[in-house]
Amino acid sequence: MTATRVPGVPVIEDGVMISTNPATGAEAGRLPVSDQAAVGAAVARAREAAQWWQSLGFDGRRERLLRWRSLIVRRITELAQISKLETGKPEADAIVETAAAIEHLDWSAKNAKRVLGPRRTRSRVLTVEHGGHLEYLPYGVVGVIGPWNYPIVTPIGPISGALAAGNAVVFKPSEYTPVLGQWLVDTFAEVVPEHPVLQAVHGMGDTGAALCRSGVAKIAFTGSTATAKKVMAACAENLVPTVIEAGGKDAMIVDADADIAAAADAAVWGSMTNAGQTCIGIERVYAVAPVYDAFVEAVVERAGKLRTGAEIGPITMPKQLDIIREHIDDALAKGGRAVLGGASAVQPPYVAPTVLVDVPDHSLEIRDETFGPTVTITKVADADEAVRKANDTAYGLGGSVFGKRDAVRIARRLRSGMVAVNSTLTFVGVGNLPFGGTGDSGFGRIHGDDGLREFARAKSILVRRGPSAIPVQSYGRTPKHIAALIKTLRLLYGRRT
Ligand code: NDP
After folding, report:
1. How far apart are CA 472 and CA 463, in angstroms?
2. Cα(278)–Cα(201) distance, rounded to whole angstroms?
3. Which among 22, 130, 273, 388 has most CB atoms closer than 10 A?
4. How large is the average pLDDT for residues 427-437?
5. With a 6 A CB cut-off, is 146 part of the ligand 1 pocket?
C-alpha cells in the first residue's frame, strides 16, 4: 500500500515507517514498525538484559554510560545533521541540545551510586535495637516515550536516569524522529554490545500504547498533556507508574530593575528557539509598566532580525501550523496587536517571528500552548500582578524572571517546576537540578537526585541488633510493657510545644 506523502509527515508503507524532512520532504530514513507482538518481544529481551545490566553494579554501568557519552560527543556533528534532516532545526541548535543531553548522561553515571546505593540509616528511639539499611533498586524494564521537538535531550534525560539506576530501557521515539531515536540506540549498542539494554520500537501512537501495556515496570512519558492522559489510562490497567513531562505555557516576568537588553535577548531566544516548539519555551512575557515600552522595542528589534529558513527552522509537525495560525488570528480578533509578524506570519512550513501586545487574558495565545515562534508581551502594574497572571494557567512547567532586588523572591512565587533568574531555559541542561512540572505540565522528575530516584524503588531492610527494651510487638508482652510504652511516648512526644 502506498500512502500520499506530505513533507515532514511520516508514513507507513508495508510495515516500514518512512521519515521525511519537514521543509524539503527529503527522506530521512526507513525503520520497521513494531506491532504489539514486536513490542512484547523487545520488552522480553529487555527483561533478560536488565538482569545482566543490574549485575554490573553502579561502577560497571558508570563506565559504560561514560563510554556512550564520549562516543556521542565524538559524533556530535553527525547527530546534529540527523536532527536537522528529521526536524528541520538548525544544526547549531541540535548541538546546544546535545550539550544538555551529555550533561545528564555524565551526571547520572557519576552520581547514581551516591544517590541510590546502599546506606545505613540512623536508629530511632522507639526501635533503637534495630539498624536500618536503605537502597534503591531498579524497576527492571522502563519504557521511555519521547516527543519530536527535542529528540535528543528529552529522551536522554529519562534514559540516562533509568540506565544509571540499573534498568533496561525500551524507547519509543516520536514518529517524527525515529531515525534519530534509532541512532541513539545503535550508538549505545556500540559501547554495550553484550545485551540489548537499550532498544527502540517504532511506529505511531499505537506502538506507544502497546509499550504501556507490554509489562514494563514504569513509563517515562514526554509529550502533550492530551497524550499523557491516554498513556496514564493505559498504564492504569496494570498499575504501571508513570513520570509525565507534558506541555507548558511558560511566562517570563520583567521587573523594574531588570537589565532590559539581557531580558529582551532572553525573551527572543526563549520564545523563538526551535521555532518556538519548546515545552519550556517562553510564550508569555509580563513586563512592569516602567520598563514595558523599552522592553517591547528591544524585543522587536532583536526578533525582527531572525530569518525563517535560517535561525527559524520549519514547523516540524505540519498540523501545528493550523494551531499557530488560529492562536494569532484569535489574539488579533480579540483586540491584540502584532508589533512584529502577525496575520501573515504563517507561511508553511515556516512561521515568521511574531510579537503580540495587548492580547486579552482569555485569548488562546495566553491560555493554550501555541508551540510556534510567537510571544505575547503584557504590561502589568507591578511584580504582584505579573505573578498572578503568570500563575493563571493550568500548566506549570518552567519560567523566567529578570530583575535584581526581588528576582529570586518572584521566582519562588511562580507555580512551576523550574525558574531561570536572569536567563531562560538554562535549567534543562544542569545535571543536578530536577526537571518537571505541576498541574497540566505533569508530575515526577527527571534529572538530578530526584530524577534518579524516579527510576528506582526504595528497599528498606531493618535488622534487629539486640533485645527490645519495650517488647510490645510480641504476644509475650504484658500490661507493664504497654504502660512502659505509654510512659515513653508521653516523655518523648507528649509535652505541649
Ligand atoms: P505527543 O503527545 O503527540 O507525542 C508524544 C509521544 O507519545 C510520541 O512518541 C507519540 O507517538 C506517543 N504517543 C501518541 N499517542 C500515544 C498513545 N495513545 N499511547 C502512548 N504513546 C502515544 O507530543 P509531541 O510529540 O507532539 O510533542 C510535543 C509536546 O510535548 C508538547 O506539548 C510539548 O510541550 C511537550 N513536551 C514536554 C516536555 C517536558 O519535558 N515537559 C519536553 C518536550 C516536549 P507518535 O509521535 O508516533 O504519535
Report:
1. 17
2. 24
3. 22
4. 98
5. yes
User: How many Å separate Cα 8 from the centre of its chain?
Assistant: 23
Q: Summarize the confidence of residues 171-195 as an average pLDDT.
A: 97
Separation of alpha carbons 253 and 383, rounded Å = 8
Q: Would you say 205 and 176 are in contact if contact means Cβ atoms under 8 Å apart? A: no
With a 6 Å cutoff on the Cβ, whether 224 touches ligand 1 is yes
| C-beta separation of 389 from 298 below 8 A | no
Position 10 confidence tier, pLDDT thresholds 50, 70, 90: confident
d(C-alpha 368, C-alpha 227), whole Å? 15
What CA–CA distances, in Å, run from 186 to 33, 81, 180? 17, 16, 10
Q: Is there a catalytic annotation at residue 245?
A: yes
The C-alpha cell that represents 236 in the structure block: 492504569
All cell numbers assigned to 146 = 519521547
227-246 pLDDT, tens digit each: 999 999 999 999 999 999 99
Q: Given pLDDT bands bounded at 50, 70 and 90, which one contains residue 302? A: very high
Average pLDDT, the chain: 96
Structural domains in the chain plus CATH codes: 11-247+448-456 (3.40.605.10), 250-394+398-429 (3.40.309.10)
Q: How far is the CA of 442 from the centre of ligand 1 (A)?
A: 12
**Residue tagged active-site, from 103, 212, 279, 311:** 279
Overall pTM > 0.85: yes
Longest CA–CA separation in the chain, Å? 85
User: 414: Cβ below 6 Å to ligand 1?
Assistant: no
Starting at the edge strand that comes first in sequence, how are the strands of the sheet with 374-380 ordered? Answer: 337-340, 354-357, 374-380, 282-288, 250-254, 399-402, 420-421
- The amino acid present at 388, given as its one-letter code, is R
State yes or no: is 13 an active-site residue.
Answer: no
| pLDDT at residue 6 in the model | 77
- The secondary structure of 356-425, three-state, reads EECCCCCCHHHHCCCCCCEEEEEEECCHHHHHHHHHCCCCCCCEEEECCCCHHHHHHHCCCCCCEECCCC
Report the share of the chain in percent with pLDDT over 90: 94
| Three-class SS state of 463 | strand
